[in-house]
Amino acid sequence: MKIIEIKILRGPNFWSVRRTKLIQLKLDLEEMEDRPTNTIPGFKERLDKLMPTLYEHRCSEGHAGGFYERVIEGTWMGHVIEHIALELQTLAGMDTGFGRTRGTGVKGEYYVCFSYIEEDAGAYTARTAVRIAQALIDDKPYVLDEDIMRLREIREDTRLGPSTGCIVEEAARRGIPFIRLNKQSLVQLGYGIHQKRIRATIASTTSNIAVDIACDKEETKNF
What we know:
Blueprint: E1 2-10, E2 21-28, H1 43-50, H2 66-73, H3 77-91, E3 99-103, E4 109-115, H4 119-137, H5 144-158, H6 162-173, E5 178-180, E6 186-189, E7 196-199, E8 202-203, H7 208-214, H8 217-222
Antiparallel strand pairs: 1-2, 2-4, 3-4, 5-6, 6-7, 7-8
Helix pairs in contact: 3-4, 4-5
């Protein structure tokens, strides 16, 4: 299998209007296009042993164990990678739940989309999920704890500060969309003429944020 590209989606997108934080992985299954999961000896058992918590994934069946039913019946590797990516983030303390896998229109190519909480963690998860799936196909041992620890480190390094995080969580509860604008704590709430920007407890109702950005040439160029 081969990763063609990884895109980080921010804001309303082709896949969802409400789920604004998605990783879009474009994947070429190569020879695995002709090998659904029910044709790979021992695949389900190895997957269950490595990530037993995948049993909770309902998938389209709508009940616990639904994803495993799909694996037993035979599903394609893009779908498996989607669920591995979601569960990896959950095990690292970033509980997400939205995923979609659809063909691109080219034989063997798929878009694997899944939600993320931290961008860097989402991109890392996309690559890792493909590695894990390949190891399971090849019946090679894989140490999952190292990836979970790395994802936790990424989360701690990149997560919003406590003040900004509280405001963003409340905005999400009220249905206000938000976009993180840099690696620090600058966040945009809302879109278009209704947008406001915050950093920690400072809002764009003052000129403080604008002045700080203008004083940083690299930051200004990025925006």
